[in-house]
Amino acid sequence: MGAGLAGALLAWRLSARPEFRVTLLTGDGRPDATAASGGLVRAFEPGSETARLAALSLAELRADPRLRAWAGYRESPSLYILGGADAPVAALPPTARWYDAGRLAAEYGIHGLPDGAAAVWEPVAGHISPHGLRRAVCADLAARGTAVTPGRLHTVARTGEGGVRYGVGSITGETDALVLATGAWTGPLLNALGLPADGPGLRTKVVQCAVYRTAGRRPPPFVDATTGLYGRPVGDDRMLLGLPTRRWGAAAGAPHFLAREERAVRTTAARRLPGLSLERLVRPVAAVDAYGPSGQLALAPVADGSGRLFLFTGGGGGSAKLALAASHEAADTLSARLRAPVPHPTCTPREMS
What we know:
- By secondary structure, the chain is α+β, with helices and mostly antiparallel strands.
- It has a domain at 1-39 and 129-201 and 292-353: FAD/NAD(P)-binding domain (3-Layer(bba) Sandwich).
- 27% of the residues lie in helices and 30% in strands.
- The strands form 4 sheets. Strands 2, 3, 4, 5, 11, 12, 13, 14 and 15 form a 9-stranded mixed sheet that branches.
- The longest helix has 16 residues, at 48-63.
- It is globular.
- The two termini are 17 Å apart.
- Pfam families: DAO.
């Protein structure tokens, strides 16, 4: 359930396995985090597990011409700037190098870094269109005969036989297992199943960024962990830039684009990228995403979910770079878990508004 990038890729992985018959419930097309994602991909991440998934995902993407085309992959170098305390301990991908503050200023126009800060420079990284990849994967699923069902979910309930019953539009069905790859909508869906929305430790937060028409010196795709600023070039004369927000606990849907947060991006960019002029805001972007306690995208069973209810969400704004590898591993995990016998609790159906 859920056709963001994570859910679409998991359905795609499962549909290739003969032991599964997959139905992908895509939702009703409301704005989601996949459509808003900047799509940065690279092999480096500060955490060892996210770095492993990021490197595997990038390797698969670059090795598969079909995935590259579906994702609109644009190859470029990448920079990940770390503060002085973090830089010496981070493990590097094989092709990556450390760039000190002097080199960052000379080659990329990045200034004002704190003492000891350095960047991980990767020669081969870049960005994708998560929405484009999601759309192509869903089209491929449908072309190969997988049920891809649009529409708003209105009923979901556990059955006495250990499965899950659902209703979407005029369609009803039952399934042996249900995976919620539903991002910010996960809490309400868990409530509909009679389960606590905060049981898995999920929190929601607004992600806001914008595309600007620019002049001057544009850096390659980058993350500046010393300020939170991130960005990438868009076309020939534009730049996507953003900062993490503090809007935790946001309701799923289309949040407001806040001018004060946009001004903070301009202020931070002027300090860190003084050679880049932000001439005009071209496209505002705001969405709500789900963040799990580990900050990673991984399959997890839901407590009291009868062994047949799982989450595949919670990676927050960085899930696009992990989704290929994470979906492959989630399919392996799900296959192993569904071989085990489970109890058969009952649950009263609840209606979804």
